[in-house]
Amino acid sequence: MVNIIMFGILACVILFSAVMCVTTKRIMRAATFLLFVLFGIAGLYFLLDYTYLGAAQIAVYAGGVTMIYIFAIQLVSKQTLQGLVERLKGSRIAFGIFMAVVGLALTGFVFVKSQLFNHFAMVPDQEVGMDAIGHAMVSSDRFGYVLPFEFISIFLLACIIGGIMISRKE
């Protein structure tokens, strides 16, 4: 019962912070709300007793990625940020809603096509151990995650270099 209550609290914090992150007009507040979202996700990991993933979430994402965003925001001059005013047009909102529906339909199609639900229905109460998760994270097998992690690290490096190039005063 306590787990359900904690899950509800964390879900509300994550949803509220995510909506505020997207809808706020101040960029530093958006970065702060993003930090709250990442801490809430770490709380979900701790609630599931995946302490390693929770600690990695706090160290890598909540600590590292948010600091990269804040440094990039601070590197850009205030005159550049003050001139940016986004006006929402009806066509852009309609396009955003259309793309969200397409993404939701594509996700549902992938779940139905991969028969993910049937796999979990056939194997009840089977829990994935931390050794299997760790092996999947660092393996280069068919379902390994080494290549996506490398792409993400290259992407973050490109973001840092882009922030430095923007901050140059030429």
Your description of this structure?
The chain is mostly helical and 170 residues long. Helices cover 79% and strands 0% of the residues. It has helices at residues 2-23, 27-47, 51-75, 78-82, 90-113, 116-122, 130-138, 146-167. It is globular, with a radius of gyration of 20 Å.
Unreliable stretches covering 5 or more consecutive residues: none
The fraction of residues assigned to DSSP E strands is under 5%
Mean pLDDT: 80
Largest sheet: none
Q: Considering DSSP H and I runs of 4 or more, what fraction of the residues is helical?
A: over 70%
List the total number of helices: 8
Q: Write down how many β-strands occur, each being a DSSP E stretch of 2 or more residues.
A: 0
- From the N-terminal CA to the C-terminal CA, the straight-line distance is 59 Å
What is the CA-based Rg, rounded? 20 Å
Query: SS-based structural class?
Result: mainly alpha
Backbone shape? globular
Order of helices and strands: HHHHHHHH
Describe the secondary-structure layout.
Layout (H helix, E strand, L loop, with lengths): L1 H22 L3 H21 L3 H25 L2 H5 L7 H24 L2 H7 L7 H9 L7 H22 L3
